[in-house]
Amino acid sequence: MTASEDERSATARRLANWGNEAGPAFAKARDPARLATAVVTLHRRVDEVLATTIEGHGVRVACARGCSYCCNLRVQVQPYEAFTLAAWLRKNFSAERLAQVLGRLKANVARTRELGEEQRKRANIACALLGEDGACSAYEARPAQCRRYHSTDLAPCKAFHATHDEAIEAAMHQAVAHNADVIITQGRHAVRAAGLDDASVDMNEALLEALENPKAWRRWKDGKKPFVGRQER
Length: 233
Description:
Helix 1 runs parallel beside helix 8, helix 2 packs antiparallel against helix 8 and helix 3 packs across helix 9. Helices cover 61% and strands 2% of the residues. The chain has a two-stranded antiparallel sheet with strand order 1-2. By secondary structure, it is mainly α. It has one domain.
């Protein structure tokens, strides 16, 4: 279905507005409160452009609460998302619940390192934040890549989860994925312009270190790479 003129105009405005907004939003990200505001705004803009594009193109998204095939895939995040998510968990999770998450993160990191890069692509490792009901326990604070990911058909999701056949492609709508990527990329450009690291890293490794190692935050706000031994791309 072709997007309406109104949808194209609305999406173009959102993309342009965030392009102008991102720089000032992340300019003072070395302050934890300012960083949290910037990341929340980034995620809000991703959600907004997704909603506008989905509506304008008449996309029928097959994803629903409890459908967690993609929650077993490897997720890449930027450092600013890891620090903000860590702060959200500390604020919203009890000590017992946070300890459970830390245990799962450590297990996931160990398993990922054991498998190696290529084998990890063909393995199901449940996200440390995935609840027993198949829903994200930190949905409000989930990273941009989790927000961006969607499918118009569950069949390839189920098939890849079962076989890890790399010939199987997720049924993502091209315009929806592209517009979300533009918002994410503009955020990364703004972070780099502020002299801060924006390199992608495995979420388990980043979140574990953000929660356990205060030096990671200090390294990042000093313009250095925050996560020791991280896997970049």
